[in-house]
Amino acid sequence: MRAYYAARATYYDLVYLKPERTQDLAFLHQHIPARLAGRSVLEVACGTGYWTQVIAPRVPSMAATDWTPEPLTFARLRPNTENVTFSEADAFALPTSLGLFQAAFAGLWFSHVPISARAAFLRSLHARLGPGSRVLFLDNSEEQCDELPIVERDAEGNTYQHRPLPDGTQHRVLKNFPKVKELEALVATQACAVQHTQLDNFWLFEYDLNNDACPMTPPSAP
Ligand SMILES: C[S@@+](CC[C@H](N)C(=O)[O-])C[C@H]1O[C@@H](n2cnc3c(N)ncnc32)[C@H](O)[C@@H]1O
């Protein structure tokens, strides 16, 4: 994954120029910053900072993290990100030195998390968030498979694409398309105000971590 995204960093943003994504992106450019406005935000797997530059102007402060140095180099050059601290961080081991936040965002990241590692990722993320924090995950819909078909499925159900790059290399990339029920089950005891929005090219999953105003949903009786 790191080698693949390091190699793609210089032209990664082309994914946002696909004409069929224009309408979804117009909605997301409004919706995402509106939902995070006024909160300190931790961004995970920020890549080249495409969403960082959209969110930063609406929030007091932001930490944008990625585990690969090459895309971060581009993210640091984004305009209007003076209130953003960029750093290398593994999404599965977000360091306490980042601090505590009131919201989190991850774009096109959750689909790369192995099924067996989802809970560990959420533990790492939620440990950096205060009660009542808002979380947004944006990702690709299965529409993407028209261009990049699923070519493998492993024993735990993770799916893989073979992605060619212009330099002639081919990369085996884990890319999952989680069902709404799987996402809801993952956060069921920790979150409220859970929303899933299906767009043509993307899905968006949003929730608020429990606090007094939004108490934990008790698990149903066995
Ligand atoms: C599809 S890109 C998403 C970039 C950006 N968030 C966006 O929406 O355009 C996935 C990113 O995940 C990063 N990544 C891979 N493994 C990671 C890890 N363990 N922790 C944090 N980021 C990771 C890659 O470097 C890459 O920038």
TrEMBL record:
Domain Methyltransferase stretches: 41-132
Pfam family, one: Methyltransf_25
Superkingdom: Bacteria
InterPro entries: Methyltransf_25 (IPR041698), SAM-dependent_MTases_sf (IPR029063)
Coiled-coil spans in chain: none
Name of this chain's protein: Methyltransferase domain-containing protein
